[in-house]
Amino acid sequence: MHVQHHNAHLPRSVQAQAARLVLQANLAYGESNSNGLSYVQRLKARHECREYLDQALAIEPENAAALGLLGRVEMDDGQLEKAHTLFNASLNSQPGQAQQYCNLGYWALKSERPALAEEYFLRALECDRQSAAAFCGVAHAKRLQGQFDVAYLHYRKLLQTGSQWDSVYSGMLTCAQHLQIHKADTDLAQDAIALLRKDGLPHQEIGRFVGAIIQQQYDLDTPNAEVFLDAAAEDELLILALQKTLMPNAAVEELVVMLRRAIMAEVAQTASLRDELQPLCLAIAEYADRTGYALAAEDDEERLATTINDSIVAQFAVREPQEALIGSLMISAMYGALFHQSFAMQLGQWNLVDWPLAMQPMMAASYYSRAEEEAIKQNFDEKAEELCLAKTDVPQAWPAWSQLAYRTETSLKAVMAQELGLNTDNLPATLRIMVCGAQSGQRAMELAQYLDDVEVIAVDESLANIAKATRMAQSLNMDNIVFWPWSIAQRFVADGHQVHWVEVGRLPSPAMTKLSLAALINSASISGAVVHMHTSMAEQTAGDKQIRRLIAEHQLQPTRTSLRQLRRMVLANKQDTVWANLLKDDDFYSLGGCRDRWFRPQDAAQLKELLALVSNEVEWKLVKARDEDGHSLATAPVQRQIQAEALGSEVQSLMGQNLSVYFQRRR
């Protein structure tokens, strides 16, 4: 090989010294990618790695390992061209290295060329059939080409062979969201169990996948399919799914309602809750809470639930011990939040940790978390609007997420420089992000958590969302994020405060008559600020429009009763094509989601006004555009559409095209 010829003239001691420096560089590089270290510590380790490599290459300029590792460092710093040159230089120095073909594969992925990446990863596998990194690279490349089924099987194989990396679980979870499940399969069920058992994953994102597997397992497409309560009570997948997801599946919702009724029927007959049924009962109670108690119950069940609540009141009156209440509380929580019951005050005598371990997640959801959120709401004037509502009609936070998505920590400045090609030299140490329409806070908290140089102001019109998000941020000890209603955000901007990045989420509803999102963003954006927004609005199915017409016609109010009746109408006519898209949407399976999209829909006028603002080329520049699948688009044609739209051309309209666009303020 060429490298042997080249290195032959170097003394062995020099080669050994270079090898030692490369080894130290490798250790430092490993630290620079360690999740256990802060972003600043990781940058320091990357800097150390670069210093060792510079020393190694000074004494052995064609050291293949040093050239390749320096390429990785350059790639992590966003210097893709330099990285590409270094990987190729390493291969010239020592051909046939699986590692360098892998590196070129990841370079191609970063360059948004997944087909080329796949070729490089396959070359790496030709050099080393056992390379898990190359096989994982093929999986990522297949996923980014939209071949989700093939990628999914690659990820499964990696887990089976012991490569249980976070990126494998994360990739598999992403693919699972895109799979069509047509028949029951034990392998798929085991995959779902593995994903749901894995801590730290955003399990809320695989509700559809898990629901489809359960639908097939229980043969729910067959009319009058037999379901056995005892078998369901031992079904690990079903119990995990009820604990951790919301399944947008009408047949699964029916199954849960049926199982809840079966538990209640047995309790009514035997006056006790069997130990074997308790895990299922607790899981159904957690699930019912996540749906905002959307699950319909028959009148006789409701009467029995009321009787059980009355008996709990009586038990408190005669001061029965805590353990005597446990079974009744489990059953009560399947039908309504314990926080809303007349005995709620008495539950406050115990802390969450005073309850049996298996009960604690249910008690947190049904009582303790709600109490915390209620205390948070008292800090805002908007709380006055809730005082005239019945307890069960108070809006629910939505979406019902539980885990932040997996992301590698970085900085906003690095994102601005690497993704958008912007100059960040004159930016301050800490940048301020405003998330408009943050809903229940998942996206805003991800930004605050994985960007180390930001403080985040997240704004939403729902007080329930603000309270839930604040509680979640407190539980994660996050001190660089606040959640505010629009009134406080407007005062903040009116006082002259500005931000460096605006993220537009859910648009304000027509109820926000005193808010112009475009005017707020115009005032809040500092020179050089970036606005990231989408050009289309969700929640616009034919079913939604029909329901909004019914609401206007009958002047319905957003009570729990009205929302349940509207849902019941849709479910009773689910074969009608007008409801098809609505029934596929996660929002439909929670009263919080239904309330938002039917009674507080997004205001198209706000989006039009915002697009008109950023179409002013003197003030704003389009710096990046992506399509629905996340692929970068040429900015010139998108810019032409924006200009045409500003001139009133409907033909060229961006509205409804679902592009993700980034604008920078010029001055």
Commentary on this structure:
This protein is α/β, with parallel strands linked by helices and 667 residues long. The chain contains 31 helices and seven strands. The protein has four domains: 2-159, Tetratricopeptide repeat domain (Serine Threonine Protein Phosphatase 5, Tetratricopeptide repeat), CATH 1.25.40; 195-377, no CATH class; 412-537 and 603-665, 3-Layer(aba) Sandwich (Rossmann fold), CATH 3.40.50.150; 542-599, no CATH class. The chain has helices at residues 2-7, 12-32, 39-59, 64-76, 80-93, 98-110, 114-127, 132-144, 148-160, 166-176, 186-197, 207-217, 229-233, 236-244, 250-270, 278-290, 299-317, 322-333, 344-347, 360-377, 412-418, 442-450, 463-475, 486-494, 517-524, 542-554, 560-572, 580-583, 591-599, 604-614, 635-646; strands at residues 431-436, 454-459, 481-484, 499-504, 525-534, 620-626, 660-665. It has a seven-stranded mixed β-sheet, with helices on both faces. Helix 4 packs antiparallel against helix 5, helix 5 (80-93) runs antiparallel to helix 6 (98-110) and helix 6 packs parallel to helix 8 (132-144). The termini are far apart.
